[in-house]
Amino acid sequence: MTRTSGVSSGFERGFKSWCENTSESIRVKMGLMPHSPLAALELAKKLDVEVWNLSEVPGLSASTSSFLSSEAGNEWSAVTVQANGRQIVVLNPRHSDARRSSTLMHELAHVIRQHPPAQAVTSESGFVIRVFEEKQEAEADWLAGTLLLPRAALAYCSSKRIPVPEILAAYNVSNALYGYRMRMTGVSRQFARNGHGKRMSGVVMLQRNRPSSTLQGLQGQQPH
Description:
Elements: H1 15-29, H2 40-46, E1 49-52, H3 62-68, E2 78-83, E3 86-91, H4 97-113, E4 119-122, E5 128-131, H5 134-148, H6 151-159, H7 164-171, H8 175-185, H9 187-193, H10 213-218
Parallel strand pairs: 1-3
Antiparallel strand pairs: 2-3, 2-5, 4-5
Helix pairs in contact: 1-5, 2-4, 4-5
């Protein structure tokens, strides 16, 4: 299950550094630069985790599917289940692309950390729904944020003075997560001291499929 809070205290010593190192290692294995955007769906494929729409869940009645897809059923973000040895993540279709990306990365973080569920509930359809402890959820929150916006990426974008709207689009993240990661990693303070703290406001979003030359550099593969 997925939380939305940003708890960052109480971690074991070295955990945050481990997250940064893991983020870089995953990117290297996927042929990306340490600062390149990492798509949650691509990582799910790498980890052999299936991502389903509500319509793909067997045994789900039309009324239940309709409710979960409605504004009234908007409180849930995702559920991860196990079935026939497969790990499957079902995402809320009403949420924005950025929120679904963050939610999926959170669920993948549980997989990477190999968190044993605190509780496993078997549904009528035979799916095993996992429930995690608060500490595990906090770890997944932090790792997910690091996978989406590692310090290397934040420092790179800040050094290149890439406008915030372009960063949000390239990394498929919310402005709230971007601001949180900038603060928690210390990148905002670092570049404020270097005179990079002020960014242009009201920047027009780039047209889809027409990235700037700087953003094209974000997508570059790691040299062999």
